[in-house]
């Protein structure tokens, strides 16, 4: 009887040891998740290959060795990601905009290059829409980016650089260009599962005031993302570039992260 109790005690002890080991694994995963992703391996795991939880939307590509359903190790200060984005926006009538953007982003800084061709939805010098014209407004910008708030699933950056505006020839005058300083902020935020928010707000104050705003929801699947949101480009009137021009409307597109 005594030996039987000892055996049972030994089994109980082994059970406690296994339970304690499992608790350690769970605790370790919970700590990683709370600190970095707030992960829960749920119904999205089988479909996307990763779990369902806050911050699935990545600032960086996933580590190849990350265990499905769990957050990867936190990114190092030396890790960077390159993103490519193509978008199209639609305004009232035949107004519209198409854009390309490329960015290199890291915890210590980065840069971005952007270009948009657009036909204003209000004002401007164009008499036809983007599809019916051989020329259009062009707006390009380049910035250095400096993160001011960041975590594993969010980042807010200050941006400083320059912009270039091209206005097509029209009855107002010949084609013209304007170059100025461009400043603003951009950000990304992981929401739930593969959903995230991203966007920017920038302004060129001189020689012609230009406001550039974008806000989008991103649905990510690995390196690929579908984007949907809103775009605004507002150009102040000027004697050289013509009357004020404004484009605003819903935007769709896709992105790649490397």
Descriptive account of the structure:
With 258 residues, the protein is an alpha+beta fold. The model is unreliable at 1-56 and 62-66 (pLDDT under 50). The protein has helices spanning 2-37, 44-48, and strands spanning 39-40, 52-53, 80-90, 96-106, 109-119, 122-123, 137-151, 154-167, 176-190, 195-204, 210-221, 224-235, 245-257. It contains two helices and 13 strands. The strands form two sheets. The chain has a ten-stranded antiparallel β-barrel with strand order 3-4-5-7-8-9-10-11-12-13. Strands 1-2 form a two-stranded antiparallel sheet.
Number of strands: 13
- Give the strand line-up of the largest sheet: 3-4-5-7-8-9-10-11-12-13
Q: What is the general shape?
A: globular
Count of runs of 4 or more consecutive helical residues: 2
How would you summarize what this structure contains?
The chain is α+β, with helices and mostly antiparallel strands and 258 residues long. Helices cover 16% and strands 50% of the residues.
How do the strands and helices of this protein lay out in sequence?
Blueprint lengths: L1 H36 L1 E2 L3 H5 L3 E2 L26 E11 L5 E11 L2 E11 L2 E2 L13 E15 L2 E14 L8 E15 L4 E10 L5 E12 L2 E12 L9 E13 L1
What descriptors fit this protein?
258 residues, alpha+beta, two-stranded antiparallel ribbon, 2 helices, 16% helix, globular, disordered N terminus
């Amino acid at each position: 009887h005594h030996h039987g109790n000892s055996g049972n005690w030994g089994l109980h002890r082994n059970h406690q040891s296994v339970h304690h080991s499992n608790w350690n694994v769970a605790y370790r995963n919970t700590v990683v998740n709370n600190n970095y992703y707030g992960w829960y391996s749920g119904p999205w795991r089988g479909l996307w290959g990763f779990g369902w939880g806050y911050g699935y939307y990545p600032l960086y590509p996933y580590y190849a060795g990350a265990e499905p359903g769990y957050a990867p190790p936190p990114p190092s200060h030396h890790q960077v990601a390159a993103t490519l984005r193509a978008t199209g926006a639609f305004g009232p009538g035949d107004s519209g905009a198409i854009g390309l953007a490329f960015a290199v982003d890291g915890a210590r800084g980065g840069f971005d290059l952007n270009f948009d061709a657009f036909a204003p939805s209000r004002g401007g010098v164009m008499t036809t829409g983007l599809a019916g014209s051989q020329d259009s407004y062009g707006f390009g910008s380049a910035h250095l980016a400096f993160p001011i708030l960041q975590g594993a699933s969010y980042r807010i950056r200050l941006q400083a650089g320059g912009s270039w505006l091209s206005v097509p020839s029209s009855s107002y005058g010949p084609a013209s260009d304007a170059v100025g300083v461009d400043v603003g902020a951009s950000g990304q935020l992981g929401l739930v599962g593969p959903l995230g928010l991203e966007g920017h707000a920038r302004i060129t104050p001189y020689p012609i005031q230009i406001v550039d705003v974008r806000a989008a929801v991103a649905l990510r699947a690995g390196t690929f993302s579908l984007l949907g949101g809103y775009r605004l480009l507002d150009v102040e009137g000027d004697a050289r570039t013509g009357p004020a021009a404004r484009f605003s409307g819903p935007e769709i597109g896709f992105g790649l992260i490397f």
